């Protein structure tokens, strides 16, 4: 679950295989910023175009 820009919690499912099941990618394609050690809420920092995260609509 992630918090969107309005403070609402959302869920995002990211599938790491393509339609025929032989995709060899081992990454989601996004970075996370924040966390307890940074004293900041966890948030999506960047989404790389063309990756599973981008294809799932993560912003």
Strand order of the largest sheet: 1-2
Low-pLDDT runs of 5+ residues are none
Helix content: under 10%
What structural class do the secondary elements suggest?
Answer: mainly beta
The helix tally amounts to 1
Strand content: 25-35%
End-to-end span in angstroms?
Answer: 13 Å
Considering the chains and any ligands shown, give keywords for the structure.
7% helix, 59 residues, mainly beta, two-stranded antiparallel ribbon
Helices and strands, with pairings:
Layout lengths: L1 E2 L5 E2 L19 E6 L4 E8 L4 H4 L4
Antiparallel strand pairs: 1-2, 3-4
Write up this protein.
With 59 residues, the protein is mostly beta strands. It has one domain (2-55). Helix content is 7%, strand content 31%. It has one helix spanning 52-55, and strands spanning 2-3, 9-10, 30-35, 40-47. The strands form two sheets. A two-stranded antiparallel sheet has the order 1-2. It has a two-stranded antiparallel sheet with strand order 3-4. A hairpin with a 5-residue loop joins strand 1 (2-3) and strand 2. The mean pLDDT is 75.
What is shown here, in short?
The chain is mostly beta strands and 59 residues long. It has 1 helix and 4 strands.
